[in-house]
């Protein structure tokens, strides 16, 4: 059997605002694939880091935002979700009490809080990740 070449990433859906007026933190991608499209913050896991630590690190690297706690959503790994190759993402969601200042850093050209009801089409399979995060967030 050939050796599998699978990359592992983490993604974070961060909510802020009161019920009915929630916003989600998005980043505009600086590089391909999906250059200039909106996405949720995330990226490749480092070899020696726990999943949640990778999600927090990527969130801070791309937006400057630090969070205390994230809740694991589930894994997303359908073939073709990333044109660079087989990638499995473990997604998380978190909530902060109010909108904090964010800025695009690292491979994010921009970071911005966007109302849930005004979300654009997102890169990769992030639309599915966000829908799943909203369901879990609202059920808590």
UniProtKB/TrEMBL annotation:
Q: Does the keyword tRNA processing apply?
A: no
Q: GO molecular function terms here?
A: hydrolase activity
Tell me which residues make up the Nudix hydrolase domain: 5-138
Q: Which domain of life is it from?
A: Bacteria
Task: Cite the entry's keywords alphabetically.
Answer: Hydrolase
Q: What is this protein called?
A: 8-oxo-dGTP diphosphatase
The species this protein belongs to is Salinimicrobium catena
Q: What is the lineage of its organism?
A: Bacteria, Pseudomonadati, Bacteroidota, Flavobacteriia, Flavobacteriales
């Amino acid at each position: 059997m050939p050796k599998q070449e699978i990359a592992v990433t983490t993604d974070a859906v961060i909510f802020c605002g009161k019920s009915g007026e929630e916003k989600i933190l998005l980043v505009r991608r600086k590089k391909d694939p999906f250059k200039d499209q909106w996405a949720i913050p995330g990226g490749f896991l480092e070899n020696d880091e726990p999943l949640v630590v990778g999600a927090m690190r990527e969130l801070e690297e791309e937006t400057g935002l630090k969070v205390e706690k994230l809740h694991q959503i589930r894994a997303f790994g359908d073939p073709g979700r990333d044109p660079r190759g087989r990638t499995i993402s473990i997604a998380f969601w978190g909530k902060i009490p109010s909108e904090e200042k964010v800025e695009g850093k690292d491979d994010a050209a921009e970071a911005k809080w966007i109302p849930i009801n005004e979300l654009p089409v997102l890169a990769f399979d992030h639309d599915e990740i966000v829908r799943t995060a909203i369901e879990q967030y609202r059920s808590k």
